[in-house]
Amino acid sequence: MEEHKSNPSFKPIATRKIYQYILEQFVHLVSTGVLKPGDKIPSERELAESFKVSRPSVREALRVLEIIGLIDIQPGGGAYLKEMELGPFISVVAPLMFSRDRFDLELLEFRELIEIRAIELLPNPLSAEALEPMGRAIGEMRRALLDNDVEAGALADIQFHRSLLLASNSFILQKVLELVVSLFEHAVRGGRSVVLEKQEDAAQLLHDHERIYQELADGNTDHAKKLLSSHLAMVKNLART
Amino acid sequence: MEEHKSNPSFKPIATRKIYQYILEQFVHLVSTGVLKPGDKIPSERELAESFKVSRPSVREALRVLEIIGLIDIQPGGGAYLKEMELGPFISVVAPLMFSRDRFDLELLEFRELIEIRAIELLPNPLSAEALEPMGRAIGEMRRALLDNDVEAGALADIQFHRSLLLASNSFILQKVLELVVSLFEHAVRGGRSVVLEKQEDAAQLLHDHERIYQELADGNTDHAKKLLSSHLAMVKNLART
DNA sequence: CTATAGTAACTGGTATTACCAGTTGACAGG
DNA sequence: CCTGTCAACTGGTAATACCAGTTACTATAG
């Protein structure tokens, strides 16, 4: 282990790959607003010619942009920019996360921390546009309960919480919670239901959601916060069994 | 906009790309523990032959693994698995984040939320191994203060908080905070110092760290928590100006 | 024998070319 | 006007080649 003389005069030379340069230019164009969501990206062949590089290099850059969730690639169609979306990234990483012990419980605790903060930041009164998706999620959950469709119920549950956070004004909180919620969603779709299968538990969930919705609609943010807190605590207890 | 008839009987056919299959197999091998950090990954040519696909396809999968921070690729050497590391991902995404208004402030607020929770979860008493890196970060910060080295000071600050979170026992909190701290680090290295340049402010930071460290060493977690809270509030106020 | 330099066999990085499959739009024929 | 066909795109994949860097072995000079 004597190789690292670490002569302070000489720093290792960082070699950058060319896909990183392409990536850099793209990100710069997006962050400066030159490229906006919905814009169509030139074809791979055009890009290769513009950058004076080969098509594989362009493809590697696009691959990364795809995983980051910054572009949407349609085979035969083209590539389009979109609002950054953490879904694709999550779907790759999720299995690595859930292989850990007690990850489900930790995730719930973390979600509690974030979600309560999100509700504190909700504007008061809540706009009708913010309330609408929450109401829709509740309706969906009610239907799922009647049909005894466990997975649909769980997804509706997630949708409710997602619409809650979308109403908050913190960009970071939205992104982080989006990440957490995506993890839950991934777990549910993968069949590892972190959720409740018993009918009465699902009914309780629905009931909680309805009450939270009502309090928010009435402008009682404090009440809603307390309800959400106990709601998540209940879920946590159920999951622990 | 009438194209989406959304006939419930027919679901769109999802076509998966072959790099996703390769990715899936890799992630599965890692999450089941067959592949462990430090293991060497076969060469691209071997993999291509094993998977019966072309080398570009293998490369695209490896590219993604590299961005996720799951492997380390040495040109001319080979690829090695490592503990997942969010750094590469952050360095791509960071510019997109910091292009938003008031992101710095939001980041501080979010960090406050997370970090206080992390200190609540600290084991009590704190082990010497957990305290040691914190002490080292304080020493580094003291040196930077004397040398009037702003960037080194900021990085030492980050190092202190990073070592704090590493002592907590929550895997998620560690990962999320690691992500946040990486964002700060990226900002500092990029010259967009979210930090303080005035000598007396830096001295105050150092003083706060020393007190927090002392309280933690003495086992007074509650005191440390209060100190951290006011410490971060102070930083936030300074950043607001 | 040892240490050096040289060399051959790797590795990943990039480029080139080609073909396939899916999409799109124009255009001709009903 | 609708419809089916076809040509010109698009991205997905493959095969091949060459470059540059790493590594380890080897032969040579001391």
- Largest sheet of chain A, order of strands side by side? 1-3-2
Main interface by residue count:
A-B, 40 and 40 residues
CATH superfamily of the largest domain in chain A: GntR ligand-binding domain-like
- By DSSP (H or I, 4+ residues per run), the number of helices of chain A equals 10
* C-alpha-based Rg of chain A, rounded: 23 Å
Instruction: Kindly report the average pLDDT value of chain A.
Output: 84
Q: What characteristic shape of chain A results from the CA principal axes?
A: elongated
Strand content of chain A: under 5%
Report, as a whole number of angstroms, the end-to-end distance of chain A: 49 Å
Give a description of the structure.
Two copies of one chain form a homodimer. The first copy, chain A, is mainly alpha-helical and 241 residues long. Chain A folds into two domains: 18-81, Orthogonal Bundle (Arc Repressor Mutant, subunit A), CATH 1.10.10; 90-240, GntR ligand-binding domain-like (Four Helix Bundle (Hemerythrin (Met), subunit A), Up-down Bundle), CATH 1.20.120. Helices cover 68% and strands 3% of the residues of chain A. Chain A is built from ten helices and three strands; from the N terminus they run αβααββααααααα. Chain A has a three-stranded antiparallel beta sheet with strand order 1-3-2. In chain A, a hairpin with a 5-residue loop joins β2 and β3. The longest helix of chain A is centred in the middle third of the chain and has 20 residues, at 128-147. The radius of gyration of chain A is 23 Å and the shape is elongated. At the A-B interface, α1, α3, α4, α5 and α8 of A face α1, α3, α4, α5 and α8 of B. The first copy, chain A, binds a DNA duplex (30 and 30 nucleotides) through residues 15, 17-19, 43-45, 53-57, 59, 62, 73-79.
